[in-house]
Structures are given as structure tokens and as C-alpha cells.
Description:
This protein is of the alpha+beta class.
Amino acid sequence: xxxxxxxxxxxxxxxxxxxxxxxxxxxxxxxxxxxxxxxxxxxxxxxxxxxxxxxxxxxxxxxxxxxxxxxxxxxxxxxxxxxxxxxxxxxxxxxxxxxxxxxxxxxxxxxxxxxxxxxxxxxxxxxxxxxxxxxxxxxxxxxxxxxxxxxxxxxxxxxxxxxxxxxxxxx
Length: 171
């Protein structure tokens, strides 16, 4: 079971989320079959963090706009996307998909990502990133260990949603 636990500042569990979309794919370098050893989760999760509503997702789910649309309908203003994207697919898709999901949902996307790996066949792309609700890359670290930070603004989220209503609040 691939799941993430969101802990509060005192170490208490705030939310638990199990990945719903498993990575079964064939690339030029190898075959991936998460479904051979993982069972998918069956529900999505959001949690209150400070004054924000945080939607939870994991890695491959980034390729499914409907997943992010549901999180938005659940009230998400920020969506976390921890990932171990393969280098092979990440170099072409990772940042583009992060921006697309931010634009589509009008949410901040916070995406911590693994980088490097033991060999060419198991290398992770990395590029930890924070994207604003307009799709702009606020911070990124493409290589090596490190931390990225950005200031998030609830007024920006509200302003974009007011200026360009997408119907999430009326469904």
C-alpha cells in the first residue's frame, strides 16, 4: 500500500491518503507495474493546514486532471504532489503537468520530488517545485538535495477564481 501521512506541527496525524492511480507503464528503458505489488486507495483527501485547505495526491496521479478537479471541488487551495517521476518521462512532462494542474484548478501546486538514482534505468527526475494558481513557477530545485520556498497568497487564489470562474463551486 503506497500512502502518505500528513503530520501536524506537534507530530499528530492530520490526514492519511492512499494513492488511487497506480503507475503501470512501459517506457523505452523499462516496464513499471505498481499494480503487481500495490493496491490502490479508493478515496481522495483534503486537510486543513493553517488557514489553507490542502489536497493530497501522489506522483502518477498528476496525469489525471479529474483527480485534481475533485480535490478542487473538495475545497483545495493547495495541492501536494510528492513524486518519484522517472527521469525518462519527467524531463518532458513534469513541469508542464504541474503548471497545467495549477491552471486547471486555480490552486497552488507544491511538488516535492526525488532526484537521482542508482542507475540509468531507475533514475528519478527531481525538480521539486512550487507553482502558483496562474501556472507560474515560483520556485524549483532541479538537481541535488535541497529545499525550495515560496510565499503563498490566499488573495491571489481568490482573485483568480473571482476573475475567471470555472464552475467548481456550482457543481
